[in-house]
Amino acid sequence: MSAPSPETPRADAGAPETSSRRGRPGRPREEGLDARLVEAALALIDSGEPVTAAKLVQLSGVSRAAVYRRWPSLTDLVATALDRGRDAHVIPIDGDLRAALHDAFLGGYEQRMAGYPEARMRRRLALGLADPVLQRAYWDAHVARRRVSTIAVLRAGVEQGLLRADTDLEACADLLSGVFYYQLVVRGVSLTDAEALARCRAAFEVIWRGMSAEAGE
Amino acid sequence: MSAPSPETPRADAGAPETSSRRGRPGRPREEGLDARLVEAALALIDSGEPVTAAKLVQLSGVSRAAVYRRWPSLTDLVATALDRGRDAHVIPIDGDLRAALHDAFLGGYEQRMAGYPEARMRRRLALGLADPVLQRAYWDAHVARRRVSTIAVLRAGVEQGLLRADTDLEACADLLSGVFYYQLVVRGVSLTDAEALARCRAAFEVIWRGMSAEAGE
């Protein structure tokens, strides 16, 4: 999963028209409309303005009818816009699992952040806190799918006997991500801050040791 | 530390008048002003309105001059208001450290949340994400002080040889809290949700095992 395709958000939001849209591949003009809508939504979000149909029509040139035909709700469009540029976290499970997981969470952090500015991340989280419906839509359509890769590497670790058999995969995925969010959401420090990254690195060691089969079994 | 006294926020924000105020104990009328200002700020926050001097004057009946005499900045007043009702997390270090830490993070969660509604927690985090100055003020005056107790119990664990000598106390405190914030900020589920609490409980076990001296040394 790289940048979200225009297809995926509707599929994940369970839009009834999904299958018919999937059956119409290669309609560049239609896909162009989605891209323009996502761009317009992102421009509004980044400028701190509420995303309304009127503003979207004005900025994108797409008709109001087309907006609602293409997106079951503006919430899904906003969620997709907020995901633009986020890293994919696809973790290989055919090699050193610990190194792969470490690299996924701690490798090349600066580069990764470059594609997804911190200001947008702050706005995404703030919008979600203010609007639980958007928060759940974003989780369902984007976060939950991205986590699949983290869960897969943890499961492989359990299957290989590297991690404890009783490892709670969901809880450990939350733990791995949670310490990063804590830096931005509670401490208010940038995720490129050297001390913040050092804490996240130390936390990773604690988590890995806590999950390891050698450690407690 | 229970509910923040009207004295503490100015002391923590480094207000120059702090020492003189501390030298004037028992001035109920003055303390009454602070309480009214915090109440007024909280009413504005809870209703989603911005906290302005004009609104504070209108709601509290305290004069504009008195507002600015008593609070170096409205940011500090907002931070104090946002902390109203938050649990103290004072953890005993003279008994079973693991049980004490577990109880501090996972015991009586429903009761604790009752004193600090989730809506206010969401608003506090959203306001902080939108305003890094407020976020830092809240961290410095409130979170950092509350964390002292968590850090103290971890340090006692290291000193007793229960936890690894190389335990990064700050990173582990972030880790312990981070998984709770993740539920609300990213998953968008309530901290009283049974599955969310089960994940936090499982995460606590992983963290404790990962810090334990027996586990890796």
Automatic annotation (TrEMBL), chains A, B:
Residues 94-196 form the Tetracyclin repressor-like C-terminal domain. SUPFAM superfamilies: Homeodomain-like (SSF46689), Tetracyclin repressor-like, C-terminal domain (SSF48498). Keywords: DNA-binding, Transcription, Transcription regulation. It comes from the Bacteria. Pfam families: TetR_C_11. Residues 1-31 are annotated as: Disordered. GO terms for molecular function: DNA-binding transcription factor activity; transcription cis-regulatory region binding. This is TetR/AcrR family transcriptional regulator C-terminal ligand-binding domain-containing protein. It comes from Microbacterium stercoris. The lineage of its organism: Bacteria, Bacillati, Actinomycetota, Actinomycetes, Micrococcales.
